[in-house]
Amino acid sequence: MNILLMGFGIVGQSFIELLLQKQSEGFAIPRIVGVSTLRRGSLYHATGLDLAELRRAILTGHLDAYPEEAGLKRDLNGMALIEVAQAQVFIESTYTNLRDGQPAIDYCRAALERGMHLITANKGPIALAYPALRTLAEQKNRYLGFEATVMSGTPAIEIGLNTFRGAHITAIRGIFNGTTNYILTQMESGLSYTEALRAAQELGYAEADPTADVEGWDTLSKVLILANTLMGGNLTVADVARRGISHITGQDVDEERANNRRWKLLGSIERAEDGQLIARVEPQRLSLEDPLAMVSGITNAISYSTDLLGDVTLIGAGAGGMATAFALWADYLRIPRP
Amino acid sequence: MNILLMGFGIVGQSFIELLLQKQSEGFAIPRIVGVSTLRRGSLYHATGLDLAELRRAILTGHLDAYPEEAGLKRDLNGMALIEVAQAQVFIESTYTNLRDGQPAIDYCRAALERGMHLITANKGPIALAYPALRTLAEQKNRYLGFEATVMSGTPAIEIGLNTFRGAHITAIRGIFNGTTNYILTQMESGLSYTEALRAAQELGYAEADPTADVEGWDTLSKVLILANTLMGGNLTVADVARRGISHITGQDVDEERANNRRWKLLGSIERAEDGQLIARVEPQRLSLEDPLAMVSGITNAISYSTDLLGDVTLIGAGAGGMATAFALWADYLRIPRP
Questions:
Q1: What is the pTM of this model?
Q2: What is the mean pLDDT of residues A264-287?
Q3: How close is the nearest chain A Cα to the Cα of B320, in Å?
Q4: B-chain residues within 8 Å CB-CB of A291?
Q5: A222 among known catalytic residues
Q6: Spatial contact of B155 and B330, defined as CB atoms under 8 Å apart
Q7: What integer is the mean pLDDT of A20-35?
């Protein structure tokens, strides 16, 4: 199968690494026929791009450094590339925009319309437009994969969507943001919020503007995805009560520690008696007996409550280039073969 | 599809309950055409048995209490039933025999030979004869499901076998026996081994003869299953170093608690440099930072180490009628439909 890759940051580059690794292990790997970025150029070749050259080129800072070759097209913009590409799989890995999901939602729609399977690491399209994208994918009989959007390659989506399909998920709660969990874990060791945030920034876990993480927006996007894909919801951003961790002080942390409790920023979804989903993002005080209380540092976790199985908890990586690339690979392998 | 059910203990009865529940939710459920027990009779009807009557009959203590009906055959023995039954799915839920796996292995072989899909909750056939059964299932193009054999319905097998299929599992360790984990958890609260064992027996978690649990045989059977099904092994009982928990004293537990550690009976498999699998069952002292250290009571857990994803831990029920019946149901749903 031919792949068109939209976005070429850490996730896209790790995916190329993963393909090269699989190739060296003797696997047949798909061709990457196109790669498009917003500011670092784009490439298309109908018979496939050279993965090692692609890696070399992006490390120079611009895809212009990719060697010239007969049939190579440069600098098609994203939408133009989708229109011309002879590809069976579209991978969307551009940056998450939680305001309107664009331009990723338009890319995803166009790729499905052109008959490509859609795999996205971008949370925006799934958080904001899942029902419409799912309907379109079904109409076109194409696969829609989004394992990478929650807990990177840790299979939170696959388990909820397929492994549990004989049971009902009645509630979900979890730690879906590694940055805030790292900050709270550091505060357990005595750092102030400001010191812990700075440590996270120095390690590259938090961005210069940490708002998306510390105010709970990233967790909110995952809550939307889980509610709408695994629990049949149709929630929007405004439906999710949201509170971040920036107001939590060292004293708050110390007080709970004295009570054998820990603060954790949880995303949670439960079903009310009338069938409506109640979703929220907020710091909660967890007893040390709670499996989520022991999840420390940048690790993520999800607990599903089910009717037939009781509670099942999954703990694993929540981010990271290779872990996220694995999610794309796992989705790729799940595309039904004719 | 028609199902033939071998064994009708807690698991088989819970499976009937689950089917009745699914039916009441509006699902189309498979027919149970035959049920066979060793000492409580057997029933066969080509057009299906009545599930509510089946439940009533077994609660009297013998399937003789099932109402008479034209076409009903009674008291065929297990092998005879497999030979005559018009069924597409064989579910094996008789008691695990870790010495030679019989008569379950013969039943499984015969059912596959007759072209039935095989789903087993019985650990014996998978722990002792997986390579041969898998080959036979492949030759006959039939499904072989064994989710129920490890951690009941908690999807330890499905995740390792399918969800991670794009990655390599490099090691597995876990808490695979709820009885011993309950005993060790009670000892953390100050009970002696003998007191904790008695408490487990009173609650029905341990049997009158607790050897299979406390000496690690049950954990060993799960280690064999995981090694041979998820890590490509071909291990036998003699290949697994085994030590139980009956020698652990309250003093041992107290000493580790003083060091912020807990004793847990772990099953583990790792790959040596020469590619061989090293499998063992033994009590280990876990730091409280280890996700497995916090798994308490009868709960089970498995940690997979993978090349692309790092460590992923799954925590959930390890036993229970409905949780195990869910595993059978999940396997049933995974049978490829024509």
A1: 0.95
A2: 97
A3: 9
A4: 291, 294-295, 315
A5: yes
A6: yes
A7: 96
